[in-house]
């Protein structure tokens, strides 16, 4: 377009630039709006996808390798040289210690798994320490308890004390772990605590075990004594005679709730150094225990346990209203729970 020249006097000349086309400006605004719209939509879709994953992704379909794919430096467990206040590590003072926590749900094989770890000469796994409410009442009490344990000032029958190469404990998801996950994740990452997730693929079997164990707390079938774990075939046979009745109306909702809790824990602890295990895999393939020892940076040993499995064989032998349960789960996403899985 031509420039406009205005003459005000003999000494002043003002040159006005050409006017920009309104069509061009509109096109620029339109393209900018489209780019912004596409970006906002992509962010929203990503958030919706992440949210849906937490809500509906069941742990039976979460297939992961033994080790999470992490940066190389996170594959190496952090080592510590604690100085306990209650004893002297003596000649082991220069021996490095790794910190770990077994994160699981009740009746998922964590007790059996912990006895396997404790059969290692250099491992001290100190049980379900947060079953005591005062220790998990708030984030401060949790941190205080963790500090005491990882400083080797926590004494149980499993403690190897001076020469422990790995020290840890069991932590159930419903014992403050989910409620205070932000503080706990920060602690794990700061202190170099490795997380060992242990779940059951077959949540129906877990439900049978939970209900049976709850019943025995009151019935005390073994000569008036309640035992969550047994060490003989005779004791296992006695406890397995009780057949719980499962509420088939709430069954699917209960199974979904278990899945959501496990998926939420995995999401919350995504930034930690972790390994994910399944009880059924450990039962069928004991070489998985080698993965665990390598994960903790331990010398390899043959791990053993004297615990005996209670509920063996098909679930139809262990559920009172089997026909109702079978009918409820047939043709659903949980139908595979009805079959023998190991």
TrEMBL record:
Regions that span the bilayer: 23-45
Keyword terms, alphabetized: Membrane, Transmembrane, Transmembrane helix
InterPro entries assigned: Nod_factor_sulfotransferase (IPR052796), P-loop_NTPase (IPR027417)
Protein name: Sulfotransferase
Native species: Hevea brasiliensis
């Amino acid at each position: 377009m031509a420039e406009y020249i205005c003459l005000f006097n003999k000494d002043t000349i003002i040159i006005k630039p050409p006017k920009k086309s309104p069509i061009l400006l509109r096109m620029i605004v339109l393209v900018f709006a489209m780019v912004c719209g596409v970006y906002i939509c992509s962010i929203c879709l990503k958030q919706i996808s992440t949210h849906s994953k937490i809500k509906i992704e069941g742990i039976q379909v979460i297939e992961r390798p033994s080790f999470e794919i992490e940066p190389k430096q996170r594959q190496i467990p952090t080592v510590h040289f604690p100085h306990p206040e209650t004893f002297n590590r003596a000649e082991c003072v220069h021996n490095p210690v790794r910190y770990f926590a077994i994160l699981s749900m009740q009746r998922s094989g964590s007790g059996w798994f912990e006895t396997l770890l404790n059969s290692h000469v250099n491992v001290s796994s100190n049980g379900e320490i947060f079953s005591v409410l005062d220790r998990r009442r708030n984030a401060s009490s949790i941190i205080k308890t963790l500090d005491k344990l990882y400083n080797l000032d926590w004494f149980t029958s499993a403690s190897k004390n001076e020469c422990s190469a790995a020290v840890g404990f069991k932590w159930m998801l419903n014992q403050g772990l989910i409620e205070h996950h932000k503080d706990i994740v920060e602690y794990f990452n700061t202190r170099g605590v490795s997380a060992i997730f242990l779940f059951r693929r077959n949540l129906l079997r877990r439900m049978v075990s939970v209900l049976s164990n709850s019943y025995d707390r009151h019935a005390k079938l073994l000569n008036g004594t309640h035992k969550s774990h047994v060490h003989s075939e005779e004791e296992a046979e006695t406890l397995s005679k009780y057949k719980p009745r499962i509420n088939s109306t709430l069954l699917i909702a209960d199974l979904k709730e278990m899945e959501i809790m496990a998926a939420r824990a995995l999401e919350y602890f995504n930034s930690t150094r972790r390994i994910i295990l399944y009880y059924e895999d450990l039962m069928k393939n004991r070489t998985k225990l080698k993965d665990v020892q390598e994960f903790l940076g331990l010398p390899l040993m043959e791990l053993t346990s004297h615990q005996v499995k209670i509920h063996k064989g098909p679930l139809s032998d262990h559920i009172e209203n089997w026909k109702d349960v079978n009918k409820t789960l047939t043709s659903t996403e949980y139908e595979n729970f009805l079959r023998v899985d190991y």
